[in-house]
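Record 1 of the preview.
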Amino acid sequence: MTVEYTTAQDRLREAVTASGRADFSRYDDPADLTEVEAASWANRALSAEALRSTILEVAGQDGKPFELVGARVVGPLDLAGLRLPRIFSLRRCIVDDVELGHALAGRLDLSGSHIRGPMKARDLKAGGEVFLRDISVEDGIDLESARIDGTTDLRGASLSSRQTNALTIAGARVGGSVRLDDAHVDGVVVAMGVRIDGRLVLQGVKIRGRARELGSQVPAEPRFGTPQPTTWALVADHAVIEGAVQLSTVLNALSRRATAKSNAASLTGQVSFFAADIGGNFVGDYCYLRAEAGYALTLETARVGGAVLLRGAHLHGGVRLYSAQITGGLECDDGLFIGRPRIAAVDAGQCKVSGPINLRNGFEAVGGVLAPRAAIGGHFDCSGGQLHGCPPGGRPGDDAGVAALNLRDAAIEGNVILSAPFTAEGEVVLRGATVAASCNARFGLFKNIGRTALDAAGLRVERELVLTGATVMGNLDLSHAEVTSFFDDRQGWPHNPEGDGDEDTMPAHLDLEGFRYESLRSPDLSWNDRRDWLRLQRQPQRPQPFLQLASAYRAGGMERDARKTLIARHNEGLSLRNPWRQLLRITVGYGYEPLRALLIALVVFLAGCVVFDYAARHQMLVPTRTTTAVSSSCEAPKYPCMSPYVYSLDTLLPVINLRQRDYWTPDPGRGRWVAVFAWSSTVLGWVLGLLVIAGFSGLVRRE
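->
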């Protein structure tokens, strides 16, 4: 079909000659016209060559704008390398394709136009804004290495691609902001190495990503550990953005939550800001990101000058913040982050966050929160959070996703808050972490039956560690941890509720080896309770936990409980084949209760009184010297009388001579058993006397 251009071209020439503006908008909306209808309308259709000639003519007139509205441009519009008018506008037009590579322009406006092919603008130089509002492009926009002094406005745009990239601004320099508010994109947005002096605004954007093969502009996938090809939605690796990145409205108050939800972005495919430099906040409140492979959001090694806000966000694929530097805080309250096997819900290992990390108020992570060796300048608050260690399809033992929470060797300047209704299904690792304030797990639930539920080995807490009311279903490791005050109760002790002796449900254990604390703040627990607590250890005979408990008792003025603890320490390792240790236990409590020996001596003394009184009354004690006395009766003052009380004391205290044994002795015939008792009493007196001296002097104590 032949298309006549005469009428439209004449009108165009007349209009631009007069004012530089030709308006065809009184006709039907170009988006509602088919190609045949638009091309057959002579009053509307323009040839691309004629339009190019007119543009060149206007460009030669300094300062004169060119504006075309509502036209149908037939054929490829090639403006590559041209110097365009100061204001160049093709609004609400239908164009087959546009070539603007290496062109020079002032303000560029293609708002509302429909481009049936690609828009190629590589190395474009625009001295003002580039308006692409509500534009529709069927084969992608290429702005790679462009230089744009003003804002690039793509609000409401509809972009698709026959290949992969729906929008490419890799290596571009934008003096203002880049806006994709409410845009619909079917393909990949590639912004690697872009420099944006303003903000990157993605509020309400809908992006359905595409798969990219290895070797494209998109970064290599092996850093995520998943197979090729990978589906990408937005790639902004190594981008420099002076302002904020906004995937939703900034949420400043609860009253604005509905607004934040309605303006949140939805992206299917990976979103990557690997090694990006973002000067402001990264705002993703209530955004929806979904990736079938790899992480849904990557900020690995990125620098964020503000906070990372993901409150209420849904991330199916998790977020990677490995080695990121965040000047503000990380806010994920009320979010849902879902990982997968070997992909954690939150991977923030070795990241540096100057503010707090908040995972509160209904936050849920399926796949675990990993922040080993992280440096956190504020609180780590997970109160009200739910953490699940194993993602769907994952198994205990997989590298990523096993621990519900991993803060191994992390440095936290504020508090660690894991209080109710905090829930962790999987291991919680605080091993080697340093907490400058308190660690509060009051009424938290730690569940990892048959394995370690809470690993706090080597934890350093400047203030208190609180486990009061906590539920630990699994093992609890406090070995070599150091805290100032320790709060706990029986409920916070480890246990396996289903424990029936099976391999997977063995009784839970407690490891206290090397655990140091200055004071105990558990008034409801008696010494008997603490003895049960110590017996929860795998090796309850280890001495250090007993010595530490005794030290804490002494610091609190509970000397009696301290002695009980030290005695119990020796009892745990006592062997029946060691008679010396048995003797020390019975007589002086291993040196901690030397008065026991005096009590034993008193019993022996009273027994001696009974025995020697009986012997005296039955003539079993005879004088040792010649006297008129023929029995234990005496004739004072010629011969000293026999006193069973003094005689018993004389045999029991051999170092003191009370002269009773000098004058009276058991009869060799009838009183032989009395002699044996007297000899035994003397030996026991020596032993008890020596043990009392050793006990009071500390010679038999081993601490």
